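Structure ticket #2291
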Amino acid sequence: AFYTNSLAVAATDSNDQLASFSQYGSWVDIAAPGVNILATYPNNQYRSLSGTSMACPHVAGAAAVLWSHNPSLTNAELRAALETHVDPYQPLSGRTLAPNAGRLNVYRALQAVGGGGPTQPSLSSLSLNPTSVVGGNRVVGTVTLTAPAPEGGYLVQLGSNATARLTLMPSHVMVPAGQRTASFEIITRRVNQSTAVTIRASAEGVSRQATLTILPESAVQLQSLTISPTSVLGGSSATGTVTLSAPAPAGGFVVQLRSSSNRAQVPSTVTIPAGATSANFTIRTTAGGLVTTVTITATYNGVSRSAQLTIWL
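Resolution: structure written out below.
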């Protein structure tokens, strides 16, 4: 069962595979041995028993060991140590646990919390920004540790399952001493169809991964055109903004512009720079005449978006 501020525990067998009877899902935080566990039994006996009731005591006992070793640990720190310093488990028939969950490893968790001194770092997460780009664009990856890096830094190895889709992918990144994060750059290649690429980070037996989606240029569409303000006095200016559905690739995207009236002058084009999703342009109006509503239209790749500007006098 799942309750706030409690650990949900799955059961694994001697091969670290999720047991057929075990609960599973994104709410299950950690796994522990729960198949054929030797336990005391009534009438001075021992029996091999199976169940999550066998797995949960492993985690409870591990928590007690960690707290006895480092009594200064907070609840959150103890939980993070147990959940983060785990070994891989094997899913069963597509049944999985929470992202980055694994099988309990008391030794590694104990090493991480130390003896009341500084906590030893471990790889906590890998993130990408953005997670979806048009081929040719740059992506920033960030690795995060559970504690500040020691003197000399903390080396994290990097890899991918599709290096052919990447122009640049460093083999490692160093987290500086005293810091918990470090960033690295990925440069993607142009693709003809949407491609999912797995980026991996690993250090001292802990692995984390993130998925990067590389899009073809044809996937980028003109999403919107907005004008601010939407009404001005003649002779004043307004600002138009064109926005794409995804960041523009290397070289940028050129959007065509036109106005329905000479009272509102716009440039013939506006360029959205590589890596950006929007660009601004100036609309200059003229004074004199009646109140006029002008339609400004932006066009890219056969898709047009329009917005109106009212000019007073």
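Closing remark: The chain has three domains: 9-113, 123-217, 220-312.
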